[in-house]
TrEMBL record:
<keyword id="KW-0812">Transmembrane</keyword>
<comment type="similarity">
    <text>Belongs to the ALG14 family.</text>
</comment>
<feature type="transmembrane region" description="Helical">
    <location>
        <begin position="37"/>
        <end position="60"/>
    </location>
</feature>
<keyword id="KW-1133">Transmembrane helix</keyword>
<dbReference type="GO" id="GO:0006488">
    <property type="term" value="P:dolichol-linked oligosaccharide biosynthetic process"/>
</dbReference>
<dbReference type="Pfam" id="PF08660">
    <property type="entry name" value="Alg14"/>
</dbReference>
<comment type="subunit">
    <text>Heterodimer with ALG13 to form a functional enzyme.</text>
</comment>
<feature type="transmembrane region" description="Helical">
    <location>
        <begin position="202"/>
        <end position="226"/>
    </location>
</feature>
<keyword id="KW-0256">Endoplasmic reticulum</keyword>
<keyword id="KW-0472">Membrane</keyword>
<protein>
    <recommendedName>
        <fullName>UDP-N-acetylglucosamine transferase subunit ALG14</fullName>
    </recommendedName>
</protein>
<dbReference type="InterPro" id="IPR013969">
    <property type="entry name" value="Oligosacch_biosynth_Alg14"/>
</dbReference>
<dbReference type="GO" id="GO:0043541">
    <property type="term" value="C:UDP-N-acetylglucosamine transferase complex"/>
</dbReference>
<dbReference type="GO" id="GO:0004577">
    <property type="term" value="F:N-acetylglucosaminyldiphosphodolichol N-acetylglucosaminyltransferase activity"/>
</dbReference>
<dbReference type="GO" id="GO:0031965">
    <property type="term" value="C:nuclear membrane"/>
</dbReference>
Amino acid sequence: MDAHGVHLSKPPEISSSSFWMTDFVSPITSLTATSQMLILLLITTLILLNMVFFRLVTILSRPPPSRRSQPSPANPTHILIVLGSGGHTAEMLNILSQTPCLQLDFTYRTYVVSSGDGFSALKAHEFEKSLLADLSSTPGLSIPEGTASNYNVVTIHRARKVHQSLYTAPFSSLRCLLDCIAVLNGSHRDLKYQHSRGYPDLILTNGPGTGVIVVLASLTLLFFGYSGPSPAFMSTSKDSNREVNRLGGQMRSIFIESWARVKTLSLSGRLLKPFVNRFIVQWPQLARSEGSRVEYIGPLVT
């Protein structure tokens, strides 16, 4: 009550949190509906981009795989090898020929070639025959049953043909990506046998453009949680083997830069360098100029 006998009401208290909330919301509510939708879309996009980024970081920073026991019917292994036209196929097979027990180290082998590259497909078949001949001529070596037939040569659509328009290249690349996903999950039409092992343990490429799409397909599958052995295979595994088998099918990737690349990386190499598990070059000066993610372990082509 004041000096004149008039009752005065106490003004309502406004908390600091309410003040700041009002101060923040008022400009937004004063915007048009279109502007509010654009702001909401921007915020949603930023959240999704952050989720994608952290998921990719999780995939790319996976710890190195632990050493696995010798391959066997209860513990099979699977390698996927990308071949390419030109000198890529010859160089890759030359590197692999220095691994005489490739057929024993990897129970299943999948060779990926692009459409129209019959030469690479033929060379893959000849390479498997030569490996088997070398194993057969080794005294005292036991060759598991099915070694000669446990491989596939798969043809996928080419990502971009020579002189193809840039306007249609995204569509052909998408078709190639879908083919690669089908190869990785074992559902491609060219697979002669449907092994129950699941996804490949290792992806090996040395520079063809197809290899970029294959690695991209593996990252897409890993992003959505698709990896490892198939549930059917795990259900038939013994308890003692399940933990070991669970480590397989993780689609680790190795990129081997071409021997011809002495001072600079190829376009495929520059694209894949941040995304593969190991990046190997064949010249020491190239390794020094490209930083810590690049390895030099000596020349691999003989």
